[in-house]
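= Paired protein data =
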Amino acid sequence: MTQFTQLPGIKTITTDVSALEEFWETYGYNFLKRPNDLPTTTDYHFFREGIKPTWEDEGNAKGGKWIVRLPKGLASRYWEEVILALIGCQFTGIPDGEICGAVLSVRYSEDILGVWNRTALDREMVERIRDAIKKILQLPPNAHMEYKPHQTSMQDRSSFRNTQVWKPKSLEGRSGSSQERETRRSSSWGERDDRKPKRDSRAWR
């Protein structure tokens, strides 16, 4: 088992997780609070074994993250959906190892879900990850999503400022599109469906 190097302000709570049963043994039996019960300015990190939850880590440095801003009260549900999808290999069409991890940031007026990937310059891959997140969370088509390369975060020392509102290539150069103009966060959030998980051969932590 590979342990993280101790990082300032980050406490490693659990060890390797490669199956849903192992996740629920840690998460579901009073070891961890659900995000809705956490105090503000708290972050949860869930990353592949051997990858530190920092922009500068070798596995993250050339990547970035998709950001979904959640109304208060939805964090627990969507955090759990993403974690179960990572463990159960539900990111269809995404190569193994491309998703580095996920972060849930509890803030005063909203909660912020981030999914980190390895290659920010591969636009097709970044868009496929966006589509996978929308499918997993059953987000509406006009849900507000943002992307930010970690190199930009290292330059401005910010996680959530100066993000890119991503749009499909098919909309580039088409002004006035209703999808281009739509930046509101929708309050229409999909219901959870039943998905049969697959076992991941690599550990998450």
